Amino acid sequence: MDYDVLILGGGIFGCAIAYELSKYSLNIAVIEKEYDIATDIEIINSTIVFDGTIAKNDIMSTLEQRGNVLIKELAEKFNLSYQPKDMLYLAYCDKEAQKLQKTYEDAVDRGIENIELINSKKVAEVEPNLKKEVINGILSRNTGIIEPYDLALALAEVAFDNGVNFRFNEKVLSIETIAKGSIITTTKNKFKCKMVINTIPQKNYDIEDNLIDEEYKAVRRKINYFLMENEGDKKLSNIMLSISENNQISVAVPNPNSTVGAIIHDDIISMREAKDIIKKQVKGIRNNYISAYYSDTYYSDTIIINDSYVDKGYIKISGKNYSEVTMTPAIAKIISETIRENIKCTLKKDYTDKRRDIFKFRDLSNEERQELIDVDKKYGNIVCYCNKVSEGEIVDAIRRPLGARTVEGVKRRTGAMQGSCKGATCLHKIVNILARELNRDVLEIVKDTKDSNIIVGRMKEFDGI
Ligand SMILES: Cc1cc2nc3c(=O)[nH]c(=O)nc-3n(C[C@H](O)[C@H](O)[C@H](O)COP(=O)(O)OP(=O)(O)OC[C@H]3O[C@@H](n4cnc5c(N)ncnc54)[C@H](O)[C@@H]3O)c2cc1C
């Protein structure tokens, strides 16, 4: 056997499962078709850590509740940027209020603690920046926001440091079950392994078609995202969510300098429509100050961990859900238990549950910055002025375990190019640092995927320079 366990797909599921299994005496690899982990994860860096209140069924709710607790533990352990933020589920008319009452009763039955059904007066006290009067609301003190990529990367880095092999730029082509395990064929290799954990979302990587979650065929709604600036003193204190009579979901998530708005609708809506919906609900949204707007597919499938072929060494996770990040640590624990019931293994004696330090120049005091610069002068050279990201951080992002190989990889790891200029002043510097550190020509540096080169050629007249 080449491996005990092969994890197909290096998304957040793949990374979390690799982390859980790296604690045991197993030979593990993750196969990912892109140059980096978790490339599918949301580009707006403010994933909500849900609490199970609005989950569509009890199983999803339990996974959210368990994941919610585990994410807080992981954030503490790996120094991740988790911010506790209360969540207000709001009703603006009598019908919505009736629905909300039912949601509250269901949440209590699901054993969710720290939630309260509150009247409009209390809602206004808790969130003074609401514009429209509500009938009532549920206040949850369980929720928060986390940077999902940072979570995935922390888990992957610790898994890597504990011996998991991450195979990037390698696409799974087929899965074949044999007497004792599986043969996985990729664009580069053929591997034999005892167990396969398939996290690849598409159906054609299943060993049997009947494993496919029926909900894959469901009509997909659209999520319309935008990032808006708030007026100085009118920042939201809570995450807000309301579901209208016609099932349109509005979400507003406070970030340090902005509000992330999201409208889940049957279709894509215009930027103006989306903004108007949120503007009616929240005070202080500046009129022409949307810095990002995009639409994506909204998923609310039931996540299915299908282990009906576990005796053949195959587990498939299917379905996509808006709270996948929240559920992921709980799902990884379930998978880890199943694997341990099926393959003999023991806890590693030399396992290290620690992530190597990361220094974020912008979060340090001047004394700490000076100490860092004394050790490495690159920390004194600011590359991204908007977000105060230094050359030292970019070099570290490239050199550390599972280091960045692409511009997007540097952006996600360091926050460079995510400020108001969107990389206009630092993109070329980052391309040059990547080329220098990876010992490549600048022409070879890509944005994210193969063939997404940033610089496509030299101008003839400058060839000699
Ligand atoms: C609009 C939106 C908003 C969301 N908001 C939230 C939120 O607020 N809170 C929350 O908890 N969650 C949220 N989520 C969920 C979450 O961000 C994503 O769904 C999650 O990151 C997906 O992770 P994954 O590991 O399942 O899937 P993916 O990231 O899709 O992982 C699959 C991996 O497999 C790789 N792959 C595919 N094909 C192959 C192949 N043939 N060979 C090798 N590798 C392959 C892909 O490159 C990918 O890396 C949101 C999702 C969406 C879409």
Automatic annotation (TrEMBL):
<dbReference type="InterPro" id="IPR041854">
    <property type="entry name" value="BFD-like_2Fe2S-bd_dom_sf"/>
</dbReference>
<dbReference type="InterPro" id="IPR036188">
    <property type="entry name" value="FAD/NAD-bd_sf"/>
</dbReference>
<feature type="domain" description="BFD-like [2Fe-2S]-binding">
    <location>
        <begin position="382"/>
        <end position="436"/>
    </location>
</feature>
<dbReference type="Pfam" id="PF01266">
    <property type="entry name" value="DAO"/>
</dbReference>
<dbReference type="InterPro" id="IPR052745">
    <property type="entry name" value="G3P_Oxidase/Oxidoreductase"/>
</dbReference>
<feature type="domain" description="FAD dependent oxidoreductase">
    <location>
        <begin position="4"/>
        <end position="200"/>
    </location>
</feature>
<protein>
    <submittedName>
        <fullName>FAD dependent oxidoreductase</fullName>
    </submittedName>
</protein>
<dbReference type="Pfam" id="PF04324">
    <property type="entry name" value="Fer2_BFD"/>
</dbReference>
<dbReference type="InterPro" id="IPR007419">
    <property type="entry name" value="BFD-like_2Fe2S-bd_dom"/>
</dbReference>
<dbReference type="InterPro" id="IPR006076">
    <property type="entry name" value="FAD-dep_OxRdtase"/>
</dbReference>
